Amino acid sequence: MTFTPRVFSGIKPSGDLHLGNYLGAIRRFVPLQDTHETIYCVVDMHAITVWQEPEDLKRWTYEIAAAYIAAGLDPARSIIFNQSQVMEHAELSWIFNCVARMGWMARMTQFKDKAGENSENVSLGLFAYPSLMAADILLYKATGVPVGEDQKQHLELTRDIAKKFNHDFRKQIKALGFKGDFFPITETLATGPAMRVKSLKDGSKKMSKSDASDMSTIYMMDDADTIAKKIKRATTDADALPSEAAGLAGRLEAENLVGIYAALSNRSVDDVLGEFGGQGWGKFKPALGDLAVSVLSPIADEMKRLVADRGEMDAILRGGADRARAIAQPIMADIRNIVGFIR
Ligand code: TYM
What we know:
Layout: E1 6-11, H1 19-32, E2 37-42, H2 44-47, H3 54-70, E3 79-82, H4 88-97, H5 102-106, H6 109-115, H7 124-138, E4 144-146, H8 152-168, H9 170-175, E5 187-189, H10 224-232, H11 252-265, H12 269-276, H13 281-307, H14 310-339
Parallel strand pairs: 1-2, 2-3, 4-5
Helix pairs in contact: 3-13, 4-7, 7-8, 10-13, 11-12, 11-13
The structure holds ligand 1.
């Protein structure tokens, strides 16, 4: 069975977008438009697995859709929509809840991190989160998913669900006329620099939407002065920069800042160190600040323009949802048939 080269990815509207989301995800969505059918979602149903103020949820949903477009996604080529407009995501996730095993979910490190000591008191949705994520991807039989490193385990689970479904229902899949597997074994697309952007204040933690300290995170909507200030105050060691990548070993903060520079300038880490090796932070940080501002500021300006036009954003999301549904519905009809649901 050959599958159409199709990419799906999503971002949760649960906080302001930051540099990690940009480098680990959004920026990498853009070139895939040339080689794949591309579907990019704002996963609002995932966001509500923890409490969201409804007004914030709406604002962040528009903001992410705007960031997609401002960063270079073309809504005429890529499908851009918010998850809750396509009901089939919820329907397939229920079926996957019945395919996935409790033990698989209980092993998810993101669940364990989020639930912490409090696992009896988190939502049932948070536990089932990876099953909805598998539904997002497999509803479109996506063959590739560009994500940052923190999502790798969820994608392994997506492959496990696909394999178990292909196996458990192989008789029905064959009877429907499929030659091989029904679901593809989706590839994780997570290579390159900055797959795990770290907090500016602690190189052992990832940059995240929910960090308590504002100074650890560069937000996509930060103004130029704020970006420069945050980079200037980023934690570093006192040593000069090494001349090649091997010299960054064990220097978490240095490795992070050089990785960000490399990703933002589309250069390799060795190339960047070829330029800055032997120099101190007093030289490197202002250069990184200027670079970050030159990349992020035009995107932020375009995001602001787009979110101000709710009518236009609603039309884009609705149009995207219609196109997403057109792909999802025949696949979902096959799935109902395979499982044994009568219609
Ligand atoms: P979310 O909303 O936490 O993050 C969105 C994307 O940004 C990446 N990312 C990072 N990359 C590098 N460094 C960081 N510090 C960093 N922080 C976040 C994430 O890896 C992700 O690619 N479960 C997903 C959303 C989702 C999804 C999907 C993704 C739902 N369904 C289907 C792909 C396919 C999430 O919470 O991402």
